[in-house]
Structures
1.
Amino acid sequence: DIQMTQSPSSLSASVGDRVTITCRASQSISSYLNWYQQKPGKAPKLLIYAASSLQSGVPSRFSGSESGTDFTLTISSLQPEDFATYYCQQSYSSPYSFGQGTKLEIK
Amino acid sequence: QLQLQESGPGLVKPSETLSLTCTVSGGSISSSTYYWGWIRQPPGKGLDWIGSIYYSGSTYYNPSLKSRVTMSVDTSKNHFSLKLSSVTAADTAMYYCARIFWSGYYQFDYWGQGTLVTVSS
């Protein structure tokens, strides 16, 4: 099975900050990497698919990139509604595993 | 606008079978571009993929649950279902159904609101 490891597990930041969350796969997954945002009591929401493609309707301040087995979600300028938990997920092979999550909190 | 809605008992006794249905509205479950899936989230924890099903009935299950999971689809009712047998307290979780957009890549692009299932006597 492919293991997905996110870092950091939690992060404090301020409105307007640039934030980066990293996800590392235990083996090559090509670009089969998705990012989701989850707010308390809500279902996850797809932000980025195929490592760097922005899902329709998602603000352009969100972006994704990859380097080998390392993947990055960047929020260019944090907005109040961005404070949430973020998950990466690999869709390269079954079982389709998620990272453990990164909780983004207000500083 | 596509909507998915989970339904089923919120309380299941240990050793019994958990049964949930996801009803899809605003779109057809029979589209060739999509799979349909179940994901669960234990309280305060992360997300786990349970399995996926195609409108034809083809299924893919997480090996960790495969011996206990059965998924089915009813295209006439535009819904798909999950059965998880021999449940224990470890199966207590929020259960989400989701649409999976498949075009080479594979992502959960629409989610239901989730339904909390508690396993307790």
Note: Chain B touches chain A at residues 46-49, 60, 62-64, 96, 101, 105-109, 111-114 (CB under 8 Å).
2.
Amino acid sequence: DVKVTQSSRYLVKRTGEKVFLECVQDMDHENMFWYRQDPGLGLRLIYFSYDVKMKEKGDIPEGYSVSREKKERFSLILESASTNQTSMYLCASSLSQGVYLYYGYTFGSGTRLTVV
Amino acid sequence: DQQVKQNSPSLSVQEGRISILNCDYTNSMFDYFLWYKKYPAEGPTFLISISSIKDKNEDGRFTVFLNKSAKHLSLHIVPSQPGDSAVYFCAASANNAGNMLTFGGGTRLMVKP
């Protein structure tokens, strides 16, 4: 039973293209997150959202924007893709409270984006 | 400023032996710690967690130890199996920070048959 779904597993885009990465969760979670994972750098937070239409910058927001029009959907937008944005992108969601009772974040399967 | 650090980027262990993955943190406000396991081309999945009121939590072959005074936690896998080969991330949460998780850089575990 898939709970956090990322629309694409693999994506190849050209430099300068506008790229949309979509994430949908069916657990009625308030919080949603976008991370990128690069070798040796771990998981780096790009943006997160704690409510519909709300967004907060993470550690590396430059070159990215996000949209959360509905509670279940969180989109990551690369305004003008560059080769240094080639990475594995991970979406996650969580409840806003009671992390002790649950298992932290639930992650999607990831999108491997290559910008050429 | 990395608040959660995994100083070993990789670890190689023989099948059947113990794997010990380490994690250090600097923020004394962290009060809940989790370990995630990640296979290539998949998202991280929750493995085990521990509250700061405990010093040990066990789940089958996996045990997490917490040493608050040293700000150190470790994940023990006994016995290690080839299927345990993955990247392991530790994460920490502070109740006064909206339950946001801070992740370490990950350790790649390779279990050799």
Note: DSSP finds no helices and eleven strands in chain A.
3.
Amino acid sequence: DVKVTQSSRYLVKRTGEKVFLECVQDMDHENMFWYRQDPGLGLRLIYFSYDVKMKEKGDIPEGYSVSREKKERFSLILESASTNQTSMYLCATLGTGYRQPQHFGDGTRLSIL
Amino acid sequence: QQQVKQSPQSLIVQKGGISIINCAYENTAFDYFPWYQQFPGKGPALLIAIRPDVSEKKEGRFTISFNKSAKQFSLHIMDSQPGDSATYFCAASIGSNAGKSTFGDGTTLTVKP
């Protein structure tokens, strides 16, 4: 079974701080994603990575960056946190192969004060 | 431009009733349509999925109906139970593309005992 682990379930940070959200997967999946989930807005893609050191912008990349130095780890970075980045952040993975579902972690609820 | 529209946003059903959630898509290149179920405090998890050459797929009490000409698909939950109370997301993707899935905005289902 695929396991996607997000390092923190809850995180409280201050405006202007640099924030790191970590995601680790154990199934050797090439593709990893970061989403934010807000009520009524569904899942919005921030960034995704299809290989080590490779990344592509999603629909809402502004204010975020990512790092993928190892295949199993995908980090989301808030360069200078702002209150409008308070949200639930979800990491997901996707294996190769046709018609595969994404596998999600349980999320990090981030509050920016 | 939202490529997958999901309705209703919220749904309340009595125990034993039928829950129906609808999704409509625009991109005719989509060929994989999963539904995800998300319980509070958890990440979304694959519930059931369908491909466009099949008009219906059933797994236990959960059925996907697919109408390719109308570009619509729906999730039916028969004999709804309080344990089915969750948020449901439809999604669409191109199966050979290991990149992005497009998600609906989600439906919060409450099944009253």
Note: Chain A touches chain B at residues 4, 30-31, 33, 40-43, 45, 48, 50, 56, 58, 90, 92, 94, 96, 98-107 (CB under 8 Å).
4.
Amino acid sequence: GENVEQHPSTLSVQEGDSAVIKCTYSDSASNYFPWYKQELGKRPQLIIDIRSNVGEKKDQRIAVTLNKTAKHFSLHITETQPEDSAVYFCAASKTPGNQFYFGTGTSLTVIP
Amino acid sequence: GAVVSQHPSWVICKSGTSVKIECRSLDFQATTMFWYRQFPKQSLMLMATSNEGSKATYEQGVEKDKFLINHASLTLSTLTVTSAHPEDSSFYICSAFGLAAFFGQGTRLTVV
């Protein structure tokens, strides 16, 4: 099955700085890559996603890049704010409606 | 947007009893739903894929007789933890795919 690795496991940045989280996947058939933000005790919330026919996608302060050849994708958060502090999970799926395999998570702390 | 509702959000049960968790898609039909388990400070681990009108597909290592899944309608999947033991204590969360994958709010199960 799919194996998704995520780095770093913890990340602390100063407010206003950028944060980058990286994921790799093993199954070349995966073609849908969402990112989720999870606050303690709450459900994961989709923040951005990318499909394999696109190399980059941006939504305000959040962007995701995908390198299908290398099988890695990254989340970029610019101008970080304290409310960005949460655990972020990447995931990979063969099609958007199929099961997701999640990365191990990154605990992001934005220091005011 | 699409909403997935999970019930109960918190349950405490005695060892040896069974607990049923419901997952409902509120404004869309889901032929497939997914059940995940999350330990504290860890990622979401896929347990099984729930298929409407047919048997669930379990991930390797997940006991199908212990975690009974029923997907009787296009809007409801249930997970029953049978003969629960303290090691089954965890955060269980379901998801279904509308325009994107949406998660239920999760169920925190504590077995005493």
Note: Chain B has no helices and eleven strands.
